[in-house]
Amino acid sequence: MRTILGIDLGTSSVKGMLLDAERGIIACAATEYAVEIPAAGYAEQNPEMWWNAVLRTLGKLKEKNPPAMGSITAVGLSGQMHGLVMVDDKGKAVRPAIIWLDQRSWVQTKQIADRVSEKEMGEIFHNRVFTGYAFPSLLWVRDNEPDNYDKTASIMLPKDYIRMKLTGEIGTDASDASSSCLMDERRREWAWDIIDRFHLRREIFPDIHEAWEISGQITANCAGETGLRRGIPVVYGCGDQPAQGLGNGQIKEGDVICNIGTGGQISAYSEADRYDPKLRLQTFCHAVNRGYTVFGATLCAGMSMKWAKNQILKLDSYEQANEMAGEIAPGCTGLLYLPYLCGERTPLMNSNVSGAFWGLKLCHDRRHMVRAVMEGVVYSLKDSLQIFAENQIPASKVIASGGGANSPVWLKMQADIFELPVVTSVLSEQACLGACLVAGIGTGIFASAEDACGRFTGIEERIYEPDWKNACQYREMYAKYREVSDMISANNN
Asked: Which of 79, 296, 287, 283 has its CA nearest to residue 181?
């Protein structure tokens, strides 16, 4: 038996998967953790907390299937994108990681915008710089914590820290590096001219590799901590969104995925390094075939639902929330929710904008508010699909992924608002699966990305088709959503 271990380092948990290269998924496990908010607008996590969660997750997998853990022949990783990890010359984190949700670096983003033209951002980064990206976060540390900046021997993306703990090797991959806004995506190397322009130290930037390349092997020290066999090859791995795309079989033009997790994304695979000239979308390197992934991003998708459930409506479960939403007709009798709790990316690219309920009346109750949150998240994702159409990015159907794919109410809502058929994957934990597939490709277990996806990815038979009566209602509400969104954004620049 050839078993592949996939580790997905998320925002709220580490997930692990054991994949039999012939028969499919053997076992999955997860360990949750929290985001630290030490000050308003801050979002941090201790890298050692991640590693401890990895150890606990590996322990859970071993409990589920000891023989499979003993037959691991390759390890792959995926992880939350954009964030900044800084380590010293001994590989120890010099400060907590600044993750993608962080908003403290708005001053630095303005400094970058003043010195890097929008045309340059498009041609080099293929993205607009945003708070929570490694570039402005690194400038913030240099400006505000010079001692930590001086102690830094290397920077990396979050999942790279876990790979360093596994192999002792430092490096990153093109998909994650492209999410830092410090990479020249066309050349798939660091944007050295920009790095020099801002007087950043060249030596702290690790080598960039492709996701499937082997980075090293499980070390003796790691074997002692984890129980993994010494010498197992570990690939560089990739960002969680490309991994999720791969786990959904997204390896050809026209493949569109809607992911509703903590954040939300609409993504499409592209063979060429295309990008939105107005920089409302994000383009990152894909994990396979030296391709690219075009994204539209909503910062608070599932997080909006969690916030409403726990802090506003005090509901017992997501099941209760879904039941309540299902009792209310589409459009919520005019109630809108704008999910801008942490600013917003697509299309606003505005870290200062705030969320809102709009149109509240005496006739509205908790059920309307739950449904409005769900609808508002989908409206925000529809913004991305609209920009896809402007850029001639095809979308014939939508593959729903993430926690949002577990809700039939949310799935039907997506079909009606997007006006496209919505399908779901036959498997869950697509990012973990993507990490496994990348490892299998890199170690020769699978002949190609097409071979890997052909074995393990697929779509369920049930299709959520648009209801055109609902779609007409949603068109009117979406137009109102766009009007309110533009007004709120204009008042929060």
From this structure: 283
